[in-house]
Amino acid sequence: MTLLSYQIFKTVVDHGSFLKASEFLNLTPSAVSHAVSSMEEELGFSLFTRSKRGVSLTNYAKNLLPYINAVLNSDESLRQMISQYNGLQKGNVKLGCFSSVCTSWVPDIVESFKKEYSDIDIEIYQGTYDDVVCWIKNGVVDLGFLSVSSAGNLPITPLYKDDLLCVVPKGFKKAGNTEYVTIDEIRDQVFVSQRESTDADIHNFFRKYELNIKSSCHVVDDLSTIAMVASGFGICIMPELVMGDIPYQVDIYRIKPSEHRIIGLSALNSQFMAPAAKMLYQHIVEMYKTTEVE
């Protein structure tokens, strides 16, 4: 097998189609099909299941994919290192992020980074905490944003303390005229909740205070959650970073005692990243690391 065959395999995986992969690589469909067939013959097992909807990985291929990603990432690292030795700063970096970081931070990160390193391209992968963890472990992305509590056994550099807030419908009746809500005030409320893979820090909050969550809405993104709150389906807990530019009419209260999540930047091994990835890693740390998390 050759590096080209690995690249063809990965492109078919990314596009879910032999035809789309051939168009992306500027190869004929028969050349792509022949490369995959040759790999399958050499490996002794099928890599893809073909159907009218496209192609999907076999179980054998799913186990093989992280190793092929590692080979391709190593090749990219080598190319970047050679460019660096020749006085050039080129390359491609894949960055994983969750929703609120994607909307609040990523545009500024890309813009400021490109001003310094115009020949380094950044690919953005947005998903849940679980998605980003999986992408980092399997080599799909070079580095990714996570909350410290969702990183598991991945190494992570803490960057930013993001306070948790209570979001309620307009006209919500609360005790007193304080600018905060207490745990007891929200204990028996109906909540709009997200899946734990999307909202691990909020579920940790629920467990910490033994809140028995009653919910008729189970959504998967921040904006939908707040839309449901604005429509009177319940209340929710949201990180402050999410609430910067919300188009819905809701009231926001701080929580007493205060709680927060820690946003961090994770990579399998930050010391052995490709040069372009290392530059982006350091750029992000310099932009967002605060003394509050040290």
UniProtKB/TrEMBL annotation:
<dbReference type="InterPro" id="IPR036388">
    <property type="entry name" value="WH-like_DNA-bd_sf"/>
</dbReference>
<dbReference type="GO" id="GO:0003677">
    <property type="term" value="F:DNA binding"/>
</dbReference>
<comment type="similarity">
    <text>Belongs to the LysR transcriptional regulatory family.</text>
</comment>
<dbReference type="Pfam" id="PF03466">
    <property type="entry name" value="LysR_substrate"/>
</dbReference>
<feature type="domain" description="HTH lysR-type">
    <location>
        <begin position="1"/>
        <end position="58"/>
    </location>
</feature>
<keyword id="KW-0238">DNA-binding</keyword>
<dbReference type="GO" id="GO:0005829">
    <property type="term" value="C:cytosol"/>
</dbReference>
<keyword id="KW-0804">Transcription</keyword>
<dbReference type="InterPro" id="IPR050950">
    <property type="entry name" value="HTH-type_LysR_regulators"/>
</dbReference>
<dbReference type="GO" id="GO:0003700">
    <property type="term" value="F:DNA-binding transcription factor activity"/>
</dbReference>
<dbReference type="Pfam" id="PF00126">
    <property type="entry name" value="HTH_1"/>
</dbReference>
<dbReference type="InterPro" id="IPR000847">
    <property type="entry name" value="LysR_HTH_N"/>
</dbReference>
<dbReference type="InterPro" id="IPR036390">
    <property type="entry name" value="WH_DNA-bd_sf"/>
</dbReference>
<keyword id="KW-0805">Transcription regulation</keyword>
<protein>
    <submittedName>
        <fullName>DNA-binding transcriptional regulator, LysR family</fullName>
    </submittedName>
</protein>
<dbReference type="InterPro" id="IPR005119">
    <property type="entry name" value="LysR_subst-bd"/>
</dbReference>
